[in-house]
Amino acid sequence: MSYWFHRNPLKATAVQNFDIKMFAHDPEALKILGDLRQSRARVLQLLPDPNHTSEQVTTALNLYLALVRGLLLQPGEGVAASKLCHALTFRWNDSIIEGVTAREDAVFEVASVVMNVAFWFMKHAVLIAVKPEISMDDAKEVHTSLRKAAGLIKFVQDNLSAQLSEQPADGGDLDGRVITAYLNQCTAEAQEVTIARAIELKHNPSLVSALANETSKMFTTAADSLNSLDVRVFGHWKAYFGLKAKFYLAYAHNYQGEALLAQDKCGEAIRSLQESKKMYAEANELAVEYSKTKGRGTQAKPERHTFFKRLLPILDRTLEKCERENGFIYHQKVPYDPVELEMNDKTHGLVSPEPFEIPSVSPLWTPVAYAAFDESKLNKNDKSKSKAEKKAEEEVKPVKEVPIVDPETEHKTESGCVLS
Predict the structure, then answer these.
(1) 312-341 burial by CB neighbour count: b if 16+ within 10 A, else e?
(2) pLDDT tens, 115-127?
């Protein structure tokens, strides 16, 4: 089921040694710097492998954020900015665009780390989804992972974007348009799990239709947010959103047709099913376009998945039944225009990002430790470092991610999930 999801590469970063000058070698301040180095390295060590548990990654992230918050805020009750906020240069690349961004800004560092952990949760969801048989617990973990990813991204959007000292790189991961795309992608994909469960539990067709319609709108919003960015760079990712949007419109019209047939509105049901076939054909065309469009990220192949392939034969059978019964029993006129899809209050906002709260500042950040750092020497070039040391600090190597192997298994159930 990795073929079902598109994933972009993780962000890469340069080594950060946290070399901040001090008035004197204060043991508390030295411990803070040592812990910052170790906790950052631990987060970066975990992220390339989606096999780690979410608890491991969350614990490592919170430990680092508690420490790095001391670079954002002064110790104490207030919210005054720390003198250390611009003391260090952080270097990160981006998941889509080429190049490295360097900023003397701890907010930039926190936002980049949080986004990267969100990307890990997206990849962890895929790892669970590729199992040949997906249990209810697996489906819940996929759902939770995607909601956690959305929560982390929303935290960056709501709390950190406005605090950046400089404009983010155009098309970079902290660009508002890219953040919006990722946020809608995670939320929509989490809602895909909800739709699959609703189908397996044979919920009311009107409810499934409304869910699918709302999911289609989320994927459309994600695609629209990328409209003003270079199609040569973002076209591959955008095409994925387009095919998913069309696919869920097909599902929405199909289940709307089933609901209308149950209400003896056979003419309208036929029109809905015809529209569903049209959307399904367009989704197939977009899948071909997506496969031909070059760009960063994985090559999803949703048209190969059971959940995609199952719709057409169901559509054909239901449409044939409707047309036969309309000819013999109902004799209703088939509308020229498609029947408008309905929204349902029960489905609106059903899947929302899991709220993320940044941990409190580490207790290691005492006023004494904070005062030990010499603000007169902040941002000064360290002439004692060799060229090799400086080059090592500036080098950003691509992340070697642990691959997710998809056996491309034919799932036994209609949606690809197993309810137990």
Answers:
(1) beebeebbeebbebbeeebebeeeeebbeb
(2) 999 999 999 999 9
